[in-house]
Amino acid sequence: MRWVNISLLILLFIGISQADSIRGKIKKGNELFAQGKYEEALAAYQDALLDDPLNEIALFDQGDAYYKMKKYKEAIDAYQKVVGSKNLLLSAKAFYNIGNAYFQQNKLKESIEAYKKALELNPNDKEAKYNLELARAKLKEMAKKQKMQNKQQNKQKPIEPSEFAKKLKAQAGKLVDQRRYQEAYQLMVDGLKKDKTVAAFQDFIHRIKDVVDILGAKKI
User: Fold this and answer.
1) How many degrees, rounded to 5, is the angle at CA 171 between CA 168 and CA 172?
2) Tens digit of pLDDT per residue, the chain (220 long)?
């Protein structure tokens, strides 16, 4: 029995020593992090994770270091290992930081979902609420901007005239040759109502209109 008790004490001592070692490595990492030495801090967190790969604090801090180094994918991977924590506040913070990492990459839909999950776990998180609205506003603005760009591109895209439009333009051209400008102009205007691709000859229509206006002015 005495031998068993000594063994238990030894195991307990080893466990305490290992826990102290992990805490020490995390503390060292936090000190380096505070100094802006993110790569060195990351090395300390990873050293702690060698002893305890599931240590949630080390994983979370590892994510923070990756985030500061702008390695957002790696940061998200680290935070994802924490989101199922029984510590709901820690899980909420992980979701919040995941939202921030997605936001930095302009992945706004993913960012919004992460903020929403953070708020489900911690409804009183004011920063998560603010960032959620910010992400929503930016997504809306980007959608609006994209819509305007698409509209602009459609305007700049040349219109391909249909066979009807081509024949109509040829008929109008013959009328112009005969100096029947008013008839040519009216033909094109009426054709435009029937076929939008007649707009491909908008410059031609405008030139005829100018002639019609000039001749009309002279008659007056």
Assistant:
1) 85
2) 333 444 443 333 344 445 568 899 999 999 999 999 999 999 999 999 999 999 999 999 999 999 999 999 999 999 999 998 999 999 999 999 999 999 999 999 999 999 999 999 999 999 999 999 999 999 999 999 888 887 777 666 778 889 998 999 999 999 988 989 899 999 999 998 998 898 888 889 988 888 888 876 544 3
Q: How far is residue 116's CA from residue 104's CA, in Å, rounded to a whole number? A: 17
Question: Which residue range forms the structural domain that includes residue 146?
Answer: 83-157
Separation CA 139–CA 27 (nearest Å)? 38
Residue 127 belongs to a domain with what CATH number? 1.25.40.10
Q: pTM higher than 0.85 for the full model?
A: no
Spell out a b/e string for 172-202, using b for 16 or more CB atoms within 10 Å of the CB, else e. Answer: beebbeeeebebbbebbeebbeeeebbebbe
Report residue 56: phi and psi, to 5°.
-65, -35
Q: Name the domain count of the chain.
A: 3
Question: Do residues 42 and 16 lie in contact, with contact meaning Cβ atoms separated by under 8 Å?
Answer: no
CA dist 55 to 22, 42, 79, 204, Å?
A: 9, 14, 12, 75
